[in-house]
Amino acid sequence: MALRTGFISIVGRPNAGKSTLLNALLGQKLAIVTHKPQTTRTRIQGVLELPLRKKAKGDPGRAMSQIVLVDTPGVHKPETQLDKRMMQEVHDALESRDAVLFLVDVTHRLPAEQATGDGEQVQEVKVRTLGQHKRALSKAEDDFALQLVKRLDCPVILVLNKIDALPKSALLPLIAHWTSLHEFAEVIPISAKKKEGLELLLDKCVALMPEGQRYFPKDQLTDQPERFLVAELIREKILMLTGEEVPYATAVQIERYEEPASMKKLRDGKLPVTKIAAAIVCEREGQKAILIGNQGSMLKKIGTSARKDIEGLLGTRVFLELFVKVQEEWRASRGFVEDLDWRRQLEQIAEKQQRDRSLAEQRNGAAEAAAEGDGDAAE
Ligand SMILES: Nc1nc2c(ncn2[C@@H]2O[C@H](COP(=O)(O)OP(=O)(O)OP(=O)(O)O)[C@@H](O)[C@H]2O)c(=O)[nH]1
Ligand SMILES: [Mg+2]
To answer: Which residues surround ligand 2, an ion (CB under 5 A)?
Structure first.
């Protein structure tokens, strides 16, 4: 059987479990995951190599394949420049793809609570009204996300996620509901967290891929350089450790990234060291105070837990230096938001390296010319 290759974008509302699914399919943590919505801000590509599974009794087999999975930010109505950038990332991921996984969090549509007795009536009515309001909001957000996939001309698989948190009897009405709204290529219930239903999902994905050549070398996991994965790990800790507006008003920029010259252990048996300095950018002095914490306690917590994860990722020891900067209303600044994009930062790093190289060449050239001049004078 020939190799099947293609791009599959994972889209859905914030918090649906898109990044959890990407990590589960890859068997490695590539995207950060938190319980807060709008965790992912850029599209993240993960390269999945699947070996051939031969036909057997009751198993049609599976072709050898390379699937490029693309995790995206949650679909939401944009308010700030940052939101617009996030939605642009979703649109970009939908441009170049062979199939799409539309991920739905099944726990969003649990039936309304039932009133239990006279004594609790007032309380129940209140709760129910709030529930109804939430559900109306939720429906508007579902519709908004669905509109995006309705426009696509590629197969869309409906992936009902978090079935571990739903009574089995609630699944069928949900499937009926969603399939009445759109003609999906397949409907697959899964639990990304518990890794249930993933093999079936992969079988369906591979079947939809065209035959072709690999897009990435066999052993490449992602197109995202380590320094940006590091920035994301720091942002994950901020999302987990701070509340209210702070996580949303925060960005992380790597200011210095020095890899060890060799990955060999040092003479004292210790692992080599990667030196990293990162700026945590927030919008207000109040947020800065929260991020630093009492006598630097919060910054220390963020640093310690991020460092552990980064050491695991890089396989070296890590010296991590964090500082907090205020950049007022950065989320409203198009230029700043664009500068945060790692693809753009990579370009800037490459341009700087090119400038440094030409400067060095010019300097060398001038030094050689001066040396030749000296030589001429001496002759
Ligand atoms: N119970 C349960 N929880 C899940 C499952 N998949 C994801 N979650 C949880 O849902 C929350 C959101 O997961 P993410 O993977 O960050 O969701 P996302 O869709 O990437 O979210 P954004 O990046 O904000 O759009 C986390 O708390 C996950 O642990 C699942 O299968 N079952
Ligand atoms: Mg995510």
So the answer is: 18-19, 39-40
Rounded average pLDDT over 235-258 = 94
Pocket of ligand 1 (CB under 6 A): 14-20, 33-35, 37-40, 73-74, 161-162, 164-165, 191-193
C-beta of residue 65 within 8 angstroms of C-beta of residue 98: no
Count the alpha carbons within 13 Å of 145 in the hemisphere toward its beta carbon.
27
Q: Domains for the chain: give ranges and CATH numbers.
A: 4-208 (3.40.50.300), 226-340 (3.30.300.20)
Largest pairwise CA distance in the chain: 112
Q: How many CB atoms lie within 10 A of CB 155?
A: 17
- For residue 122, what pLDDT band results from cuts at 50, 70 and 90? very low
Q: Are 297 and 253 spatial neighbours (Cβ–Cβ below 8 Å)?
A: no
Q: Does position 262 have pLDDT exceeding 80, yes or no?
A: yes
What is the pLDDT at residue 124?
38
**Contact yes or no for 73/145 (Cβ under 8 A):** no
pLDDT for 187 beyond 80: yes
- What's the alpha-carbon Rg for the chain, to the nearest Å? 25
Task: Return the SS3 of 4.
Answer: strand
- What distance lies between CA 362 and its chain's CA centroid? 41
Q: How far is the CA of 74 from the centre of ligand 2 (A)?
A: 7
pLDDT beyond 70 at 113: no
Give bridge partners of residue 56 from the DSSP assignment: 59
For the chain, how many residues are written?
379
Q: Cβ(109)–Cβ(177) under 8 Å? A: yes
* pLDDT score at 131: 66
pLDDT band at 118 (very low <50, low <70, confident <90, very high): very low
